Structure formats: structure tokens, C-alpha cells
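Aim 2, interim progress: modelling of the C2E-bound target.
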Amino acid sequence: MDGGEALIDPMQCNEAPQAGSKALDQYRSLFENAIEGIYRTTPDGSYLAANPALARIYGYDGPESLIAGLTDIAQNLYVHPEDRDRFKRALDLDSEVRNFEAQVFRKDGTVIWIAENARAVRSPCGGTVCYEGTVQDITARKLAEERLRLAATVFDNVGEAIVVIGHNDVVHAVNSAFERMTGFPAENVVGLKFNLLATEVNEPEILHEAWATAAKGAIWQGELWARRADGDVFPAAMALTGVVSEDGTVKSYVLLAHDVTRRKMDEQRIRFHASHDTLTKLANRHTVMEALGDAIVRAELGGHRLAALFLDVNRFKDVNDSFGHAAGDELLRQVARRLKGCVRASDIIGRLGGDEFVVVLPNIATTAGAIACVEKILYAFSDPFNLAERELYASTSIGIALYPDDADTAEQLLSSADAAMYHCKAGGQQYSFYDHDMNRQAVDRVNLENDLRHAIADRQFRLHYQPKLDSRTRKIVGAEALIRWNHPERGNVSPALFIPVAERAGLVGAIGDWALSEACRQMRSWRDDGLDFGCVSVNLSPAQFHDASLKDKVERALAANELETSALELEITETMMATEVDRAISILTQLGAMGVRISIDDFGTGYSSLAYLKLFPVDALKIDRAFVMELPGNAKDGAIVASIVALARNLGFDVIAEGVETAAQADFLMAKDVTLMQGYLFSPPVDANSFAELLRNGV
Ligand code: C2E
Ligand code: CA
Ligand code: CA
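Predicted structure of the complex, ligand included:
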């Protein structure tokens, strides 16, 4: 044959009918009634025969319209025409294909999946006469498979752990999220009895409810504790679903678990942050007030007392100003730690802000209970604090208020304790109990700042002068200028009270500048009256000391009053020198070079490094009143005084004692070679006229 092998020869292909007419009928019936589509096509793709099932599968009215309509199988039938090539290649090679799956168009254009079994019908000479085969619509199966594949992909890619549980708690399957979340490898749980839920921590009623809900074929959702391979228990958001099988019963369960440890931790952190002070991790004001309110209710019910201790770190501002905020923060953290060590777990402890702390003792019988805790706290402050670059001592003032003795509400109780703290600080005590007079003072304090703002303009300040004497001759060699505030309503307000307020309000610079020029003005006036006052010292606050224009201001005040620089002395504290040491040295060196005297006030109580002393152009050390107070009886104070004198002598400084009140103190100090003295024994601070009298007539 000349290349005609592939051509259709219906006669040759018609094998079956030759088997006889009965058989033919049987074949025809099979052909007509088969559920599978049956066809015979030419190798190049047109139908020779098709049964009704095939027409149905492909969406044609009958075999005739199918045969007429589908004339190019590759192009008209297959969604991917190359499938036809694959089909033909397989037939050419093996003469048959089994389960050849392809997507085809039905007549209406919809796409279905079919599976074909076919064979090539060969002519005796080996040429392909036609193809014949069967077609099955497998769309439903394909979709199901696709769904399964999708489900499997989801199963293995979701973030939630999935456990499929069958009869008797035996696990059918787990996904990879399960393995990641719990640390259990799949092979350790699949096929075995396994319970992801931590039965010992979950509430039995909730577990029961979850299983009961799922057993009805419903979904139970909630948070339960699950366990990990390492034994840890973790919170998980879970959904437990009962899978309803065909007979309507629930035979298996799907458990979905989402690890919420992180979220829980975040929630906790947020709650913690909202209720705690970030720096010290103590309860914040809000939380303290709530807890205090609760404690008051319990004290009321139980008929017992409670105590609120209000603490403030003395000279905290100095630490902050001198050593920087990082040092201040560290000090507060360490204070918090020590406070925690002083209280019981049931006590409330918090930071109200700044350097203010509160401790609530929720159940005390007598004031002795509060004092015991206060003593413990004071003792905890007796060791130095270790900051990054230095060791320093800090002290605290504690105000104590009791419920129900001193207040009815949490707010009142705290403000009473605050008033007591303030009172104790002003009085130089370590702690004091609230008494009712203190309330008025506390209210006053709030207004103080406002009033201070007007005080300079309204000329409410005066300077008083306290003489400094030569210990041996008892002659006045100078004076310390001390500010006095004559408030129109309050009367005299102590600088010990308002200087700290002015510092906090940023007003102390202006006040100090006023004091400096007023002292110089007064000196000029005394000079003009022919009085020899020696040298007047003016107290500097840290803000002034760090003011870049200090030197200019000093120069101007002196020049304006035609005073020689040696007429002025500046009193600074140790702590002021300890910050920005280089700058402090340069400021003091400039002032010293001008001829202005420098003395270190309250010596022995501040934060200083003795090593710095030799670097500073200092003229005098002023022994703090605290060391003078208990002389001559207190041997330790005596030793301190002797050491300061020795130190001053070795460094070439003068030494002056302040707060000398008794002759015995004066004698003791003189015996220790303290050359200068100041104190009530000789004179309190007095106004300028009275001081002029003292100069004329002696003390
Ligand atoms: P300070 O510099 O240590 O001043 C000494 C304080 O001791 C003065 O209190 C003085 O009146 C008091 N005093 C003097 N002799 C005795 C005594 O024998 N016994 C007792 N118990 N006390 C005595 P004052 O005037 O109330 O001043 C308190 C603090 O206020 C001063 O302490 C000083 O730090 C500050 N201050 C006073 N005036 C000024 C000022 O003009 N500028 C600045 N920045 N601070 C000032
Ligand atoms: Ca002073
Ligand atoms: Ca002093």
C-alpha cells in the first residue's frame, strides 16, 4: 500500500459483525447500553463510531451528532491538543493505552476529566487501521483528589497544629506544625494513643465540655493547656471538631491548636507595663493606689491598722545633676531592690515617680510594727550604693501615716504620709509619723512654687548675715549671707524649705543671682559706712555653678560695687564639684584666679572624692553642722572633725565649723585647731543693720 495504511477502511475494522448475527446483536446491545463511552476513530482524529454513553459524556444529543460535530479530535476535544499526540505515541508504541487521563471539552465548552483505555487496530500488514477504546468521566474523582491534595497542602502548611484523632484516642495523623509546636515527631504519636492536652492542668469540666460538644459533631473552641515533648505546658487556642461519618455518628475528631504563649506573654507584658514602673519594675502610682484602696477595705473589715510609708531619697537631685541621669536611674533601681528586701511578700511597694517610693504595710497592730519596717529600710540604706563609676551613700526620709488613725481614703493616707515625709526631711529626721498639723503645711507647699515666681519682682527676699569668727580672738572676720523670704501671708519661709522647691521649679538661678548682687550691694554700703566686714560668703546652688555666665556675673557684681574680689567667698557643696570634674576645675580656677575665695559647704556629707580636692583651688572646708551637733560627747564626730582639720591643713585650706551652739562645742573645736566658727553661740543670721551693729560692737 502506498502510505494508505493509516487510512480508514471501515470494512476491515468491522471485525465484530463478522462473528455472526446473534453475536452481533449482543455486541450492539453492549455497545448501546454501556455506561462507559465506546468509540472507534481514525488515527488522524475523526469518529467512525461512538456509543450513546460517549455522546452523553461529551454532551451531544446522540452518537450521530457527536460523529458529525467532532471532526478533529485533537483540536476540538482535548483541552490540551498535545494530549492527543501523547495518546497516539503511546498507541503506536505499545498498541494500547491504559487509563489515559486528559481534560476534554464537552459540547457546551465545559471541561471534564476523562480516562481512556484504547488500542490500535492493526491491519494484517501491520498498519494502523483505527483506534478503539472506552471513555470514563472521572471528573468527580479528579475534583475529590484535587480537594484532597489541597487539604493535604493546607494540612501541612498551616500554622496551627492539627491532630486527627480516631477511636480510643488513637492519633491518625498530625501535621508538621504539630511537630514544630510540640516537639513530638509524627512517628511518636501517629497510630498511638496520645493526648496533646495537658490533663493535669486543664480544668476537668472544660475538657469534658469540649469532648461532649465535639462528640455531637459540633465545634468546641476555647483556650486549653497543651504539652510539649519536653514536658512544658503551654496555652493554646484550640478548636475540637467531631467528624460526622456517613452513618451519622462521630468516629473521629480533628483538633486544631494555635500556640498563644507569645500573645499571652505580650498581654502580660502590656498589663505589667500599664501597672508597673518601667525603671524599677515596682508597682506604679495607679497600681499602688488600687492596692492601697483594697488594703484599706480589708483593714476596715478585719478591724486592723495599716501603715503607708512615703519615702524620698535625700539629695537625689544632686546625684542626678552631678553624675547624670544614668547614675540617678541606677540609684533608683538599687533603692527599689533594697526596699523589696525589706518587706514581706504581702506588703505593697511602689514608685510614685521621681525619687518617691511608697511601702504599704497592710496589717500592723501598733506603730511598733511600722517602726520595725522603717528601721529595716534605714538599715538597708546604710551600705553604699554601687553605681557604674562610683560608690555613694544615699539616705532616705520616711513619712508614716496610719489607717484609720490619720486618713479615711487611699488618697488621704498617701498625702498624709507625704506630709509626714516632708516634715521629717525639713526637720532633718530620718522618719516621722503624721500629725494633723502637717496637712496644712503640705497644702502650703503646693502654692509655694507659684508664690516663689512673684517673690523676686515683689522684693520679698532679704539677705541675713551670720558672722564668722576667729576662734581665738572671737572677732568677726566675715559673714555668710543667708537668704530670707518674707512672704506676705506666710511670714518667714525657711530657705531649707523653698530653695529645694526653687531648684525643682528652675527658679533658683534667678534667686541666686539676686543674692549675689544683693550681697555685693550690701558690702559696698557697709564700706561706705566705714565698716570692715572682712569677707562675705554667698551660697551657690548647682544650677548657678553650672551656669556658663557665672564668672561674668560675679565680675559684674563686684565691679558694679567697686569691691575687690577677695571680699567675696562662694560656698559650694562637694557634690557640685563631682560632676563634669574638668569643667568644675576650670570654673573654679577662673574664679580663684580672679581672687574670689571658694569654700566647700557641708563638708563630709556630700558625694566627693578626696582625690579631687587637691585639683580644686579651694580656700576653706566648712565642717557640717551634723558633725558639730553632738560634740564634745560623740567621739566619732570628734574623730571626723580632727580628720577634716588634718586634711585641710595638709592641703593648705582654712577650716570653719558651722552650727556652733555651745561653749563646750567651741572649746572642743578650738582644741582641735578649727580656726573659724559660725553659729548661734555667737549670733544667729541677722539683718544687715544688726550685722553692722555687731561689727561695731562685737558679738
Ligand atoms: P547652709 O549653707 O548650711 O547654711 C547654714 C544654715 O544653718 C542656715 O540656715 C543657718 O541659719 C543655720 N545655722 C547657723 N548657725 C546655726 C546654729 O548654731 N544652729 C543651727 N541649728 N543652725 C544654724 P538657713 O539660713 O535656714 O539656710 C538653710 C540653707 O539654705 C543653707 O544651708 C543653704 O544651703 C541654703 N541657702 C540659704 N541662703 C541661700 C542662698 O542665698 N542661695 C542658695 N543657693 N542657698 C541658700
Ligand atoms: Ca552655706
Ligand atoms: Ca552648711
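The mean pLDDT is 89. The CA atoms of residues 168 and 665 lie 93 Å apart.
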